[in-house]
Structure formats: C-alpha cells, structure tokens
Amino acid sequence: MARRFNNKALLVAFAVLVAAFLAVKFFGKRSAGGNFPEFVVNMDTTGVNRILMNPKAEKGATLEFSKVDGSWRIKKGEKDIPAAEGVAENIMFQISNLKPTRLATRNEENWSQYDLTDSLGTRVRIYRDEELLADVMVGKISYKQLPGPQGQFGGQPNITGNSFVRLTEAKEVYTVTGFLGVTFNRDFNSYRNQTFLKINQDSLTALEFIYPADTGFVVQRVDSVWAIGRMPADQDILNNYVRTISNKRFSNFNDDFKGDAAPVFRLIISEKGTDPLTIRAFDLGGATWIQNSSLNPEGMFEASNEEVQKIFPSSKYLGIGS
Fold this sequence. Notes:
Blueprint: H1 2-34, E1 50-54, E2 63-68, E3 71-76, E4 79-82, H2 87-96, E5 100-105, E6 122-128, E7 131-145, H3 150-153, E8 159-167, E9 173-177, H4 181-184, E10 195-198, E11 204-210, E12 217-222, E13 225-228, E14 231-232, H5 235-245, E15 247-249, E16 265-271, E17 277-285, E18 288-293, E19 296-304, H6 305-311
Antiparallel strand pairs: 1-2, 1-6, 2-3, 3-4, 5-9, 6-7, 7-8, 8-9, 10-15, 11-12, 11-16, 12-13, 13-14, 16-17, 17-18, 18-19
C-alpha cells in the first residue's frame, strides 16, 4: 500500500514538474518578447512612387525618392538627380520584410538605448501617391561574432547582426535580423547614380579619341582584332585598356559644374546594337578635372590628372605611333 502511494505521489510530482516546465517555457517566451506580429509592417509595395528618409548620417535632412516616368530620382534640398539603380526597390523590400525576432522594450524611456529617438534613428516613410503605407524608425545594429574556424585558417570572422526598429507612432521596439544601417543610415551621395561607364567588351567596334591639336586617333575592332587603319594594333595593350574602363563607378560628385564649357578630351565608344557612348573631360585647373559620361549625363565627377589619363591615354601608351 505504501509502495502504491509512493508511486502515485511520484507521478503527481512528475506531472507538476512537466506543467511547470511548459508554463515557464511558454510564458517566459511571451515575456521575453515572443508575442508580436509576423511582420513589423503589413504593406503592398505595388504602386509605390515616393519614399522619404531622414538618415542619421544626414543629421535629419530629408531625402526624397520619387518615381518619374518609370525611373527613380532622389532629392535633397535643391538637388534633384537620378537615384542608384535598385536602391528604392531595396528600401521597399527590406521595410516590407521586417520580421521581429523579439520584443526589446515597450518603454519609451529606453528608446535611446536602441538609437530610436527622433534625433538618433532613421525615419522611413513610404507612399503610394498621398497614401502613407509605412512609417518606420530604424535604429542601431548589434553585432555578434559566431564561433568558427576562421582563427585557425586566418579567414574573415563570421559575424551576424541584429537591428532595432519601431513603428514611428508606436512604443514597441523590435529586434530584427540583419544590418539595416547599411541600407538606411547613409549619406545622400551613396544613394545617387554613381555609374560612369558600363560596356560589353566583346561587342565593342571602335574607340575614337578626340584630343587637342589633332592629336587624337581612332582604333577599330574587326573580327575581334584591334587595328588602326589597316595596321593591326597591340592586342594585349588594347584589351587590357578596355578591361580597365569597362565598369567604372565614381562617387566624387561636383554639383556646381554644369558641363557648359568645352571639353578638353572626348572619347566615343561604339558598340554593336547600341548608341555610342561619349565620355568628356573638362579641365578646371589646379590638377582638377570633371569627367562626365552620356550613360549618366547628370553625373559630374571630379577627377585627378592620373584618373583622367586612365580614361584618355596617349597613343604612345596604347602602343600606337612612336
């Protein structure tokens, strides 16, 4: 009888322990921030045509993205220029896919810990015409280095990160996975179209260098062979030059120069099936130049003598003439 009673008592005790464990696991998770929506923002990005951002990196200045005739532009104050390809789409994608992993706080007094006050955070507003679809504050990033073999082999450390966000009109601060600051806390120029040159090396047909005092020259490509007139050119030098200029991006913008002066150098690049590209170089004096490309006509980029020489080499450098 005593043995039966002891067994029954043990079963009851075991059941109580299991119940306590499950309760702690369930309610503990909820208290740690498990009771939250699947997404921070429920938003359909169809028809979005305007985005306002106030990055911390811009000290509160408003950057306005607007879709005009199918292309995105970015505006800051009086500057209104093309935005970098894909940047607006990336902003929309990241905001519409913010999945909280935990609730960090509901206390407004703790917002500063997560860089989510008006002065510390980056505010992002997304519109479809006049309809506000999302209004989100993006805060700080927390980094964590994961254990791995990188120390043994000398590779890069494996780092993961979380970011903190909240709806602008809400108190809840959520943790989400990822480095959101890389997208949202950047300066104006980093969102601009920085493309200078982008060409398909295999489709090139001619390079026309227009230099002062009739010192220019034309190099043509026929059946994959570069030639000046009927004479073959140095294939290795020219192919290396083309590789060097085939994909160029610059970020040193000069918004004061309007391109209304006569260029010192021009390069006309001809490709099969496309309109020719024209590259221009303007001498500002003092070893400072402006370079501009018809691929990005509104982008005026400052350059040094050395940078200009890489785009506009001498005929001697290309192995042409003496």
